[in-house]
Amino acid sequence: MSLGLLIVVVLIALAFTYINGFHDTANSIATVVATKVLSPGQAVLLAAVTNLVGALWGTAVAKTIAAGLVDTHIVAVGPELLICALSAATAWNLFTWWLGLPSSSSHALVGSLVGAAIAAAGDSFTAVIWAQDGAHWWQGKGVIPKVVVPMVISPLLGFVIGFLLMGALYALFSWLANRKGFLRRFGRTPFVNAFFGKAQIASASAMGLAHGMNDAQKSMGIIALALAGATAAGQFDQLPAWLGFLRINGSADGGFNVPAWVAVVCALTMAAGTAGGGWRIIKTLGHKMVKLHPINGFAAEGSSAMVILTASAFGLPVSTTHNVSASIMGVGAAKRFSAIRWSVVERMVWAWILTLPVTALLAYGFLRLARQFF
Question: What is the 8-class DSSP label of residue 188?
Fold first, then answer.
């Protein structure tokens, strides 16, 4: 990979990170805006700061993306793989943002990488590393257990935890409401709104931290993969000493570390994108799907942050969008299933279903076209 192509890959990866920031801003601030706990400007600032902190908090997810999906040798031979994959994921993000649909940037990125890798390998799945030794992917080292399974299970967990947490809060305050001393001292609705208005700031902060820990690290992984591919191909052998920071050498277990400068650049880019806002998706998540009060926002943000932070600690890339949306559905269902506007949910689910195959086909087509004309 030439230095020029590497720069192109890095720039496109950072563009994807920026778009991911404003595309997924709604994930961490939609509920806190919808419940009027914070103004849109305050919420965006909170999300930008917490995204920045989360992005710098470890690199476990970045390592999974960098060393667990695509063979670095294939990237080294065909750097256009990453360019086409990132272009496909970015195009899908912009399309769904324009429609106001909270689709998954994570699914878009994974689908694009797999589609481009298959095209690069000549219709062979050897481009995708199902396991470290090329076999027994079901034993916990490959794409399906590390990426696909968490992406499917995590929204289900978000729904269940949101449902249970909201149900527990309803039961608690119903019990407290029957205590005359509580009612006389606080009143029911004013106390609940005031308390959870403050609590929701903490839950929104946790959600922003979770988004940074998971989503920003995916772009770190892409840039690290490009650098490792160029290093493996010997493209950096003649670089001057002052550019030595570009080299990433593999470790004994076949992986590699993500450099600190990559983490910082991606974190700052994600924060800048987050500050740009994403009001179309905020409207869908915060207003159209289910009517939210501060207690609902706290339950939705708290349950989704719990799932994403746990996944991030184990290096599992999951969809922030799907988790937040599923948690909001769970919170709404705890009140009553009719509280959810199922027509909006149906549109969102179709976007979820289509993301992986559409982005894979887009990236596959982009790479085939690129190799025909260049």
Answer: S
**284-313 tens-digit pLDDT:** 554 455 566 788 888 888 999 999 999 988
Residue 4 identity:
G
CA within 13 Å, CB half, 321: 28
- Pick from 233, 226, 273, 212: which is nearest to 84 by CA? 226
Percent of the chain having pLDDT more than 70?
Answer: 75
What are 225's two structure tokens? Answer: 């993969």
Distance CA 90, CA 103 (A): 12
**Position 101, amino acid:** L
**pLDDT over 90 for what percent of the chain?**
8
Phi first, then psi: what are they for 70, rounded to 5°? -125, 140
pLDDT band at 181 (very low <50, low <70, confident <90, very high): low
Q: How far is CA 350 from CA 95, 173, 221, 344, 356, in A?
A: 14, 36, 28, 10, 11
Contact 127, 70 (CB under 8 A): yes
Structure tokens at 165: 């947490």
Between the ranges 126-130, 183-187, 220-224, where is the mean pLDDT highest? 220-224
Residue 205 CA, chain-centre distance (Å), reads 16
- A 10 A CB-CB count for 175 gives 10
How far apart are the C-alpha atoms of 107 and 256, rounded to whole Å? 23
Q: Where are the chain's structural domains? A: 3-373
Q: Please give the DSSP secondary-structure letter assigned to residue 242.
A: G
